[in-house]
């Protein structure tokens, strides 16, 4: 008689089915709880104050009661703290001081900035601390659950909880990436540069294209930005193109002059990014030193060419 087929996932390698609570029904918490529900865990409580929070909870966690944060901790074995970074320390201290933290509760925050040290007040009360930060932007809609598939999570946890933390991430469809406690702020800064600042740059580019008369800037930028992102992820600095990487000082000066005339608020950002791009292009051998001199002069002066060779930039460094 053949033995029964083995479960490919050994239960010893993953946490038991847990009751799940969410403190802070922003864009992240309900999506993570809904993803855990798909993995067999059971959401039981959520806290949220704003009308938007209530709507998100209703959309992603229907029929789950809205209660106070203390009640969430009373009902759930795994509690997701999904509040803004600056609110997290005060929330943890308040929950610990009021006796809301039960020994043995898994307490996981989703802040990129913090590791598990921020959970020390709750840990002293017996909580098991986890830091599980999804490297993903969230919309607050059901599409977020799908986007978690293959999403990297920055994971920080005590050694004895590392396997549990990684198992929870895998059950949500994510890929755990271990981040040391002291490296969390740098890790989060890198993601902010890559994602948050990208949104600002794209939105600004679309505004400028509209000002230039382009009817559908999103359609124009889509293929360009998609190719640029793909090239950058594959090749890093070697993917740099454009007037800064080529050392076209005259073109860059014209850009700055036009921005000053039509979108002065965009000048500072353009100059900052152009200087950084020039430095990286020069360091990687893409920008010739003899061209860099004129270019850096334009970027230092801000808006004019004059006095340098060939109509190049005045003022060099």
Largest sheet, strands/sense/barrel = 7 strands, mixed
- Give the CATH topology of the largest domain: Rossmann fold
Strand order of the largest sheet: 2-1-3-4-5-6-7
- Low-pLDDT ranges: 1-14, 303-317
CATH class of the largest domain: Alpha Beta
Order of helices and strands: EHEHHEHEHEHEHEHHHHHH
The CATH level-2 architecture of the largest domain is identified as: 3-Layer(aba) Sandwich
Shape descriptor? elongated
Q: Kindly state the mean pLDDT as a whole number?
A: 90
What integer value in Å does the Rg equal? 25 Å
Strand content: 5-15%
What does the model show?
With 317 residues, the chain is α/β, with parallel strands linked by helices. The protein has two domains: 11-179, Rossmann fold, CATH 3.40.50.720; 187-311. Helix content is 48%, strand content 11%. It has 13 helices and seven strands. The protein has helices at residues 29-38, 51-60, 69-75, 88-97, 120-124, 143-147, 162-171, 184-211, 217-235, 243-246, 249-262, 267-283, 289-301; strands at residues 19-23, 42-47, 78-81, 106-109, 128-134, 152-156, 175-178. A seven-stranded mixed sheet has the order 2-1-3-4-5-6-7. α5 links the parallel β4 (106-109) and β5. The protein is elongated and about 65 Å long. 34% of the residues are buried. The model is unreliable at 1-14 and 303-317 (pLDDT under 50).
